[in-house]
Amino acid sequence: MKRKGIHQLAGNDRLGWAIMGTETIATEHMVSAIRSIGHQPLWVVSRNAHYAGTFAGDLGIPNATDDLERVWADREVRFVYVSATRERRSFHIAAAAEAGKHILCDGPISNEREEAARLVALCHDLKVTLAVHHIARASSVHQTMKRLIREGDIGQIHSIVVARGGAFHPSPNRRGQLANLEGDIFFDAAIEDIDLVRFLTDAEPRRAIGISKQVGGGPQHLAFILAMDDGCIFQAHESFLTAEIEDTVMIAGSKGSLTASGTLYGRGSGTLTRRIGGKNELIPIRDKDVHVAAIQDFVTGLHGRPTWLSTGADSVANLAAINSIITSIRSGDVDIQQLGTA
Q1: Which residues pair with 132 in a beta bridge?
Q2: pTM value > 0.85
Q3: Bridge partners of 279?
């Protein structure tokens, strides 16, 4: 049976979306991305009807509400994009799943692994697709890295290094609120990189070691190591305290290495360099809009798993790794000087 195209999935009906939450700039990117493939954002949903109305008016979306029943009564709504705060994502996902709508959500889908697992089970039981938009997966550079790794271009993977740093810049808030100015380094940086490394290697974390520097209300500087189940070691450096540095993703194998630069913030395509035999080669990359790419993979994957998007199950695995890192940090450091005098 021939697979339906993006513009044919719902027959002659309009391919309508509900945008649930108005919290991040990603929502604004996704509205235009939805339209770019011939679909229509039909509703904006928020706890505050005024916020929903303002957002809808700014972006030319015809309907706004704080009443989900009005949205579910609209038979043209086939898909939901959840761009709420992490605390509200589980509520929106559960409501959309129970209404039989396929869901694309900002990642991760929850603050807690157990809650994420419950949402995954709910969507599975109701035969609803739950996909997660981690921008790093959509990068042409990272997808090229994954292809080269699978083709054995750099041999067996032994080491992965991800490093980025700079002052935390919260997503622009459309209501001028001053919330979340410090950021949560575990969810704003580390979980994105864990998801990326799992995507690149198809390996799963098995052991974790973490250390952090506390400033103000919580960790602002973080380093951790994950031992992956394929034998490679993943090392990460995340900081909201250091001066701006160019982000780097380096994969080192038995034959050579791949290094991506400027790819982790979604500000541009970045670059990819392959090093083999002592020589560096810049790999040509075709740029693309990461948000449009996510929408396309979500829609075309509805008759099966999307090809590269993160899933709800990936969120569960990412959160398990984050919990292990936090547990390692809380378990206390070993005083090397004391060991030397023991």
Answers
A1: 105, 310
A2: yes
A3: 276
H or E, element range at 72: helix 68-72
Residue 290's φ and ψ, nearest 5 degrees, are -65, -30
Q: Is 275 in contact with 257 (CB distance < 8 Å)?
A: yes
Tokens of 109: 């889908």
pLDDT at 7: 44
3-state helix, strand, coil in the chain (%, to 5): 35, 25, 35
Tokens found for residue 127: 């035969």
From 247, 256, 251, select the one nearest 146 (Cα to Cα).
Answer: 251
Q: What are phi and psi of 203, to 5 degrees?
A: -110, 160
**Prior bond of 170 cis (ω within 30°):** no
* Average of per-residue pLDDT across 290-315: 89
CA distance 80 to 91: 13
Residue from 74, 2, 10 nearest 43 by CA: 74
Cis peptide preceding 108, ω within 30 of 0: yes
Specify the residue for token string 């400033």. 215
Taking the C-alpha atoms of residue 214 and residue 340, their distance in angstroms, rounded to an integer, is: 26
Q: What does each C-alpha distance from 95 to 68, 126, 129, 327 come to in angstroms?
A: 8, 12, 13, 32
Q: For 14-45, b where at least 16 C-beta lie within 10 A, e where not — what string?
A: ebbbbbbbbbbebbbbbbebbbebebebbbbb
Handedness of CA 213, 214, 215, 220 (dihedral sign): positive
Question: For residue range 205-243, what is the model confidence (pLDDT) as tens digits?
Answer: 999 999 999 887 788 999 999 999 999 999 999 999 988
The predicted-structure confidence for 158-206, as pLDDT tens digits, reads as follows 999 999 988 766 555 555 544 444 579 999 899 999 999 999 999 999 9
> Which residue shows structure tokens 């290697």?
201
Q: Which residue in 100, 120, 145 sits closest to 315, CA to CA?
A: 120
Q: Are 256 and 275 in contact (CB under 8 A)?
A: yes
279-282 and 271-276 beta bridge pairing: antiparallel
The answer to whether 311 and 124 are in contact (CB under 8 A) is: no
